[in-house]
Amino acid sequence: MKFGDRLKKSRLEKGLTQEQVAQNLYVTRQTISGWENEISYPDIINLIKLSDYYQVSLDTLLKEDRGMREYMEKKEVTKSLRPVYNMLMFTDLLLIVLLISNIMDFIKLGILFIPTLFLVLFTVYALNRLKSFDSSSSLGLTYEWQKYLSGYKGLKYALVLPTFIILSGLIISVLKGMLVGGSIFLAGLIILIPIVTKKRWH
């Protein structure tokens, strides 16, 4: 028997409505319905509450239910990957601030400019790989604003960042020289090419 069916069976055996269970567990009726229809799954705290409430062991609730096990495994993977994802974003932001500070003459990176630029590209690449893994596994790592920039909300939003970088590169080429501006322009192109060649636009 599946997890949702076990929940429903336990509730009906006690003669309870979804509304009554929801009130006792301090969740909405829609949440209970979602659990029973396996649209969503409870977290570990609510799982223990359900086990106590229906007086059914966790082993019995989870027995032979692949969907619930997969959900719990995904939660663990997400919990492990979230700090890595956040650290990559923070590193990327810090490197970009360094590059902009160098361009604006606040600091001098000198020969470290090109390696810093490549580090930005590597961290962006790593973040994109994590996003791809996230979308294929439905882990929920990405934030809402990232969905716009990565193209989940449409091509026009995905083009904003690379277009800004390319235009910045062109402007900086005129103001600061081809080496700096050309590097930024190239970075924008490297970000742009995978976006415009994604199969979802075709």
Number of domains: 2
- Strand/helix succession: HHHHHHHHHHH
**Gyration radius, to the nearest Å?**
24 Å
Q: Tell me the β content.
A: under 5%
Q: Helix/strand/pairing class, anyone? A: mainly alpha
Largest sheet: none
Q: Choose one word for the global shape.
A: elongated
Helix content range: over 70%
Total beta-strand segments? 0
Compute the average pLDDT: 79
Distance between the termini: 42 Å
- Unreliable stretches (pLDDT < 50, length at least 5) are none
Number of alpha- plus pi-helical segments: 11
Give a written overview of the molecule.
This protein has helices spanning 3-13, 18-25, 29-36, 44-54, 58-62, 66-103, 113-137, 144-149, 155-158, 160-176, 178-196. The protein is an all-alpha fold and 202 residues long. It has two domains: 3-64, 434 Repressor (Amino-terminal Domain); 72-201, no CATH class. Helix 2 packs across helix 3 (29-36). It is elongated and about 75 Å long. The relative contact order is 0.07.
In short:
InterPro entries: Cro/C1-type_HTH, Lambda_DNA-bd_dom_sf. It contains 11 helices and no strands.
